[in-house]
Amino acid sequence: MRVLVVEDHEELAETVASGLRREGMAVDLALDGGTALERAEVNGYDVVVLDRDLPGVHGDQVCRTLARGGSRARVLMLTASGAVADRVAGLGLGADDYLAKPFAFAELVARIRALARRAQPALPPVLVRGELRVDPARREATRAGSRLPLSPKEFAVLELLLGAQGAVVSSEELLERGWDEAADPFSQTVKVTVSRLRRKLGMPPLIETVDRAGYRIR
After folding, report:
1. Angle 171-178/152-163 helices, nearest 10 degrees?
2. Are 38 and 5 contacting, i.e. CB atoms less than 8 angstroms apart?
3. CB 3.0–4.6 Å: which of 14, 66, 105, 170 could bond 214 by disulfide?
4. DSSP per residue over 48-82, as a string?
5. Helices marked H in the chain — which ranges?
6. 135: phi > 0 → left, psi -120 to 50 → alpha, else beta; which?
7. Which tens digit of pLDDT belongs to each residue from 20-42?
8. pLDDT tens digits for 68-125?
């Protein structure tokens, strides 16, 4: 999944982003509300982790703008106050969930994953196709019962392909949803990752290349 972390405390933002990347997520950062809106307009995020008290454009306005603009991204609002009135106000602005600081990182990850599931068509918690099984919550992938040693990006690509349920997924969509904004759109990143993933999945081949369209799971 692709996540935008909006937090003006740079050290906290980097810590959260690093942790989420270790969980296999593609993460972009914004340190103020204006930058957050610019990035949300350009990139298709599944979840926006939004600090409420931001310099410049306030987090409330960012949330309101995303909701009114029809963004498909789910908003998880963070705040230093856990009072009921503040939670109600945040949800009233269009936020999908609310988490008070300080928070447990494991809870943040769980809430992001729950919101990401709501951002997409409903999928089962464990993705299965033939002898291939992917458990996103546990970060485990197996084929015929044998665990596959996948890198975070390989796992992300496999999860996206399985989630498409046999439909073709373009290289552009894989890049947009599996990598952050630092990825070069003109590189061979997706092609190389798919090639490595094919080798690790073994025989018979499971990933099919559809000419001029993308990839799909057989």
Report:
1. 120
2. no
3. 170
4. EEEESS-SSS-HHHHHHHHHHTT---EEEEEES--
5. 10-22, 33-42, 59-68, 84-92, 105-119, 152-163, 171-178, 189-201
6. beta
7. 998 888 899 999 999 999 999 88
8. 877 788 999 988 766 666 666 657 778 889 888 889 999 999 999 888 877 665 567 7
Q: At what angle do helices 10-22 and 105-119 cross, to 10 degrees?
A: 70
Quote the tokens at residue 129: 């196709």
Give the global pTM. Answer: 0.66
How far is it, in rounded angstroms, from Cα 186 to Cα 202? 28
Radius of gyration of the chain (CA): 18
The confidence score (pLDDT) of residue 186 equals 65
Q: Could you identify the residue written with the tokens 């409420």?
A: 52
H/E element holding 144? none
